Amino acid sequence: MTSAREEMLGRIRTALGAGGATAPDVPRDYRSAGDLDRPALLDLLVDRLVDYRASVRRCGVDHVESTVAACLDERGAVRVVVPPGLLWTVPGGLVDDGLTAAELDALDGVVTASAVAIAETGTIVLDASPDQGRRAISLVPDYHLCVVLADQVVQTVPQALRRLDATRPLTWISGPSATSDIELHRVEGVHGPRTLEVVLAG
Asked: What letter does residue 36 receive in the DSSP assignment?
C-alpha cells in the first residue's frame, strides 16, 4: 500500500518529467537596504508602532530605568517578570526561573529587551537572548513593556534578517496580539499580550 507521502512525491516526479526539470531562478532584485537617516528611521518606527496600537516612549539611554519605572507606575504594574539577563533594574521585577504559564498569567506584565526592530513594518524581534528570555514570558502576560535601543533599529526586513540567527527561537511582534473574525471584528490579546508598550532609547 502506498503512503500519502509516497503518492505525493510520485506526483511531483511525474509533473517534473524524466528530465528532472528544475524551478526557474527567482529574481532577487527586491530592496534589501534602507535609505533613511537615523532620526527619520526612528520616527518611522514610532509611526508604525502607534499605527499598530502600541504606545511608545522615547528617552536617552541613561534614562531607560526611570522611563521603565514610570511606565509601570502609570499602569499600576507592581509584579512583573523579567528575563535573567536584563541589563536594567525593574521595580517589582521577578526574575524568570521557569515560571509556569499559570504563574506568568497571574503577574502584571513582562519587561524585556529586544534583538532588532524594523521601521518599515513596525516589527520588534526577540531572539530569546538572556535579556529577552524564553518565549513564554513575552507571550503569556497581558502587558509587554519592551526596550528597543536606537542602534537596533533597521529600515527593512532583509536588514533585520542579516542581524538575526535563524537557529534561535524568534518572536516577531507587530503591535499587540490581535486577530479579526470573518466580519473583521478586532479582538486583542488572543495569542499574546493585549497591550504592548515600547521604550525607544537613544
From this structure: -
pLDDT digits (tens, 9 = 90+) for 82-112: 999 999 999 989 999 999 999 999 999 999 9
Picking from 177, 189, 171, 197, the residue whose alpha carbon sits closest to that of residue 68 is 197
Contacts of 85 (CB under 8 A, 6+ apart): 129, 130, 131, 132, 133
Residue 105 lies in a domain: yes
The amino acid sitting at 86 is L
Predicted structure pTM score? 0.82
Give domain status of residue 13, yes or no: no
CA distances from 143 to 27, 41, 99, 110, 137 (A): 41, 26, 16, 6, 10
| Domains: count for the chain | 1
Q: What CATH number does residue 40 fall under? A: 3.40.50.10420
Per-residue pLDDT tens over the stretch 7-58: 898 888 887 776 656 667 778 787 888 899 999 999 999 999 999 999 999 9
Does 124 map to a domain?
Answer: yes
Considering only residues 107 and 2, tell me which one the structure prediction assigns the higher pLDDT: 107
Question: Range of 96's domain?
Answer: 32-201
